[in-house]
Design brief:
It contains six helices and 15 strands. It is 20% helix and 29% strand. The mean pLDDT is 94. It has 251 residues and is an alpha/beta fold.
């Protein structure tokens, strides 16, 4: 008999990620499609964006630069970013983000440390690294986690939640983030569909936006999805956020 994670545990984990409303409206940074994300309109004073995972589109990073941030980018799979801006506005290293430091990988802590920034500077994290996010977050120190005022992370393989070993990875990942941050937006990537078991719909790939708790006043749960600024990531069939991923009175 193949053991699966209990539906009660899966529901509890998803519930911990119900998006919350704050005093800040959400704005869209990046294009109206893949590579664009919703973040709280609370960017003043953030000096640096760390953006591991370099794709063909860098609209989010361009928006960061237009708002006065300096952008750090990392990706071993490309030689340089496709980025039509002066190199004085960004830094690129040809490494993957992971849980060790060698010729191919670097931890987020070592990456930030090697950037020689003031320890007081406020940071933004935008991470889409195709499943390596779990190693990256597990290896991140608590002091560094607290320096990221806003984090936008794309999480992969969520359909594996039913496997107890992977459920434990996700649980520890989200518990670590939620010690210092709250989720304020949730958007399924329509690249990859959903898994439906035990009356629970799980989006296989999902984008989550977090903000540090000490920056916000919590005003209750967000109950209206999709947000007016949400867009599909691909030309595939639209994938609305499942009802079991946000607060509603029928739960």
């Amino acid at each position: 008999v193949i053991k699966i994670t209990s539906p009660k545990k899966v529901k509890r984990l998803i519930k911990s990620l119900y998006p919350l409303r704050t005093q800040f409206e959400l704005i869209r940074m990046g294009p109206d499609g893949d590579g664009g994300y919703l973040v709280p309109d609370c960017l003043g004073g953030i000096e640096y964006c760390f953006s591991p995972g370099v794709s063909d589109v860098s609209g989010f990073e361009l928006d960061c630069i237009s708002r006065g941030m300096y952008v750090f980018m990392a990706d071993k799979s490309v030689d340089k970013p496709n980025f039509p801006v002066d190199t004085k506005n960004y830094n690129f290293i040809k490494k993957f983000i992971g849980n060790t430091n060698d010729n191919d990988f670097i931890t987020i802590d070592e990456w930030v440390k090697s950037s020689k920034l003031s320890t007081e500077s406020e940071l933004l994290l935008q991470m889409d690294i195709e499943g390596a996010e779990y190693d990256a977050i597990a290896s991140m120190s608590d002091p560094l986690m607290r320096r990221f005022r806003i984090m936008v992370i794309e999480f992969h393989f969520l359909d594996k939640l039913w496997k107890p070993a992977f459920y434990n990875v996700l649980k520890s990942t989200f518990e670590k983030i939620l010690k210092t941050h709250v989720c304020v937006h949730n958007h399924p990537n329509n690249c990859c569909g959903s898994d439906f078991q035990n009356n629970i719909e799980i989006h296989n790939v999902i984008e989550l936006t977090f903000i540090r708790k000490d920056c916000v006043e919590l005003l209750g749960y967000e109950t209206t999805f999709p947000h007016k600024l949400d867009f599909d990531n691909t030309l595939n069939e639209s994938l609305p956020l499942a009802r079991n991923w946000y607060y509603n009175n029928k739960q």
